[in-house]
Amino acid sequence: MNVRTTSLEGVLVFEPKIFGDDRGFFLETWNNARYQEHGLPPLMVQDNLSFSQKGVLRGLHYQQPHPQGKLVMALQGEIFDVAVDIRPDSPTRGQWIGEWLTEKNKHQLYIPPGFAHGFCVTSPQALVTYKCTELYYPEYDAGIRWDDPEIGIDWPITDPILSAKDTKAPYLKAVDQSTLPMRFKAA
Q1: Which of 16, 90, 141, 169 is most buried, with most CB under 10 Å away?
Q2: Residues with catalytic function
Q3: Please, are residues 181 and 87 in contact by the beta-carbon 8 Å criterion?
């Protein structure tokens, strides 16, 4: 397995080794010890599966308290997956990275706690799975605008299909900074 770092500390791209022949392929999508070697927590507590049509944009979501780390993979189709550092005490606050996750490349993007996450679908449909480091708590679910100009994500679509919740999400500068996850815990 090849592991690439990104410009955002802790955000990693995993490129699993694929064993293929004329029957199909096999790959390992999770190995606790192997992923721990690269800094992922030893326990993933929830698996999620998302199905979306072309043009759907989901995000940018985060949870506070109980921030979630996510290991994301496209099982079917193609998505542009995005991580945004929203931690007020981070030197990369407001910066983002995007990664193409496809059924063909089988890459995984790890987004650590403290980041907002979103993706858009560029194929006719996409089936996306992600492992989470923390359970989902609806009462702590939050988000920021997908098109926040201060973040400036270069999305590959221009007129996304959004949920009602995502159309009403605030810009990052409008969010009470004390409600955002922190990078460093006070001693």
Answers
A1: 169
A2: 61, 130
A3: yes
Identify the pLDDT of residue 184. Answer: 53
Which structural domains are found in the chain, ordered by start? Answer: 2-18+26-173 (2.60.120.10)
Instruction: State pTM to two decimals.
Output: 0.94
Q: Is residue 142 predicted with pLDDT exceeding 70? A: yes
pLDDT at 124 over 60: yes
User: Could you tell me which residues come within 8 angstroms of residue 38 by beta carbon, excluding any fewer than 6 positions away?
Assistant: 3, 12, 14
Amino acid residing at 59: G
Please say if the pLDDT value at position 61 is more than 80: yes
3-class SS letters over the chain: CEEEECCCCCCEEEECCEEEECCEEEECCCCHHHHHCCCCCCCCCEEEEEEEECCEEEEEEEECCCCCCEEEEEEECEEEEEEEECCCCCCCCCCEEEEEEECCCCCEEEECCCEEEEEEECCCEEEEEEEECCCCCHHHEEECCCCCCCCCCCCCCCCCECCHHHHCCCCHHHCCHHHCCCCCCCC
pLDDT of residue 177: 87
Question: CA angle, corner 140, sides to 161 and 108, nearest 5?
Answer: 60
Q: Within 13 Å, how many C-alpha atoms sit on residue 133's CB side?
A: 22
CA–CA separation, 75 and 1 (whole Å): 18
